[in-house]
Each structure stands twice: as structure tokens, then as C-alpha cells.
Amino acid sequence: MNAAGLAPARAFALLGHEHRVDILRALLDASRDGVETPIPFARLFERTEIDVSSQFSYHLDELTGQFVRDTDDGYELRYAGWKVATAILAGTYNERAEFGPTEIAGVCPHCGGETLAASYEAEWLTVSCRGCESRLVRYPIPPGVVQSRSVPEILQAFDRYVRSHMLRARGGVCPACLGVMELETHAPDNDSLATGVCRRCGNRLYPPVGLFLRDHETIPWFRREFDGNESVPFWELGWCVTDDAATVTETDPWRCRLEIPANEATLALSLGEGLTVRSATVEA
Description:
Residues 106-277 form the DUF7351 domain. InterPro entries: DUF7347, DUF7351, WH-like_DNA-bd_sf. This is ArsR family transcriptional regulator. It comes from Halovenus salina. With 284 residues, the protein is an alpha+beta fold. It has a domain at 8-90: Orthogonal Bundle (Arc Repressor Mutant, subunit A), CATH 1.10.10. It contains nine helices and 13 strands. The strands form four sheets. Strands 3-4-5-6 form a four-stranded antiparallel sheet, with helices on one face. A four-stranded antiparallel sheet has the order 10-11-12-13, with helices on one face. A three-stranded antiparallel sheet has the order 7-8-9, with no helix packed on it. The protein is elongated. The termini are far apart.
């Protein structure tokens, strides 16, 4: 389904004035503050830092249609306006932040040492082990995540952020552009056993098979029943940071066995193409 729209350059050009950004943020802040929307012209003007009503009216008109909706009751954000405003708050386009390397709590799944460190640079967050010098995860995340949070809070948000991306990808939705993402499975001699590929933007994800499946309904249940510590961040789980726990048993059609240990039990998942879970068995 297609509809007429603006060329990308024209759409971004509409944002090229501080007053227009001010208007978008005022509309977003109104929603956050519980103000009833749509917002009448005069009330929205009061929520901005624009001094002259005619300037406010001009820039509001420029945004209306593409980023702002004009209704009989006032103005409200369109989805495009909401995405721009929230991206600004996240610091996606204009903020910079960094920290570390700094020691963090946790146990390395490779060497068992409590020698983990986290760092954030150039919009990538990395967790590694200083003991065995292994990198457990490196993934991009907006600067807004690391602002106004302590390091433990950042890592908690990061854990959920990455897992939500894997959940989307396994559901066929690209975490970047929301286009169709397909999961391609590979032979054992490939660098990765599974790759998420977006057919629209070309975004590619190369996580271990276990990370793709971290929040499959069977796994949280198994970890609650047999481990009792389901809240461990994914980078402390060996089956989420390498493919060592995954064994390709057939290539045509593709079949894989993923083993997830917890105390004296093991959850064995039989996987098919697209990482579909064909069966799940608890083995003592």
C-alpha cells in the first residue's frame, strides 16, 4: 500500500529551524505531562519558547501535514513527528556520550572470573572480560540511554534493549526500519549460524543462535524452574555470547540443537529454518 509523501531531503529540510524543533518537543512534552491532546493554537504557543505569535504560526504551518496534524480541536503529533521528537530526546542525531572502561558486577561465562568491564564510545556499548580478554557483546545504542543513569541502570536498560531487538528480528521485524527481516541459517563452517537480514534497509544482525532465542517462552520458564536466576543479563550466559552450545545436525533442511544448561538440567531445543522451535526437551 503506497501513498503520496515527501522526498526524504524535503522532509528533513522541514526540521531545519530551532523553532520547529521547539514545537515538536512542546507537543511531546504535553503528552508526557498528561495534557489533553489535540492542543489548541494558543495553548501550544504558550508551551514553546517562541516569542512572536506570527513566527510560531509560520513554523507550525511548515510542520503541519508531515509531522503535525491539524484537527478541529487543535494540534497533535503525527507518527513521524513523534519519532523525530523522541529521537531528539534519545540523542540519536545530536548528542554524544561516553564512559569507561569501568568495572561492573557479573561473571564471565568463559573463564568464570568476576572481571567484567563496560564501556560506551561512538554510540556502541561493549561488555568484555579483563581476565580472559574476551568481548562478550558490542551493540549500538542511542546516547540518551547512558544519560541520567548510573552504570548498573545503563546495563539493565542495555540488556532489555538488545533482547527486544532480537525478539523483533525473530518475529520478522527489522529493529532499525521496521521492514521485513528474514532469518537466514548457515552451515557450521560459516562465521555465524544465523543472520537476520532486513530486505528494506539491509540491516544485518549476527548474534549467536541463543541470543536470538533468549526470550522464547520456553527458556524463561526453564530458567525459573531449574536455575532460579532468570534475571541474569544475557552476556553472562555462555549460550548467548557464542554458538558453542549450538550444533547443526542437518543442512538440507537446516536443523540445529541448542543446549541450555541450568544446574543439573539441560533444555534441549530442536530448531528448524528461520530458527523455529520444533521441540523442547528437559534433560536431567
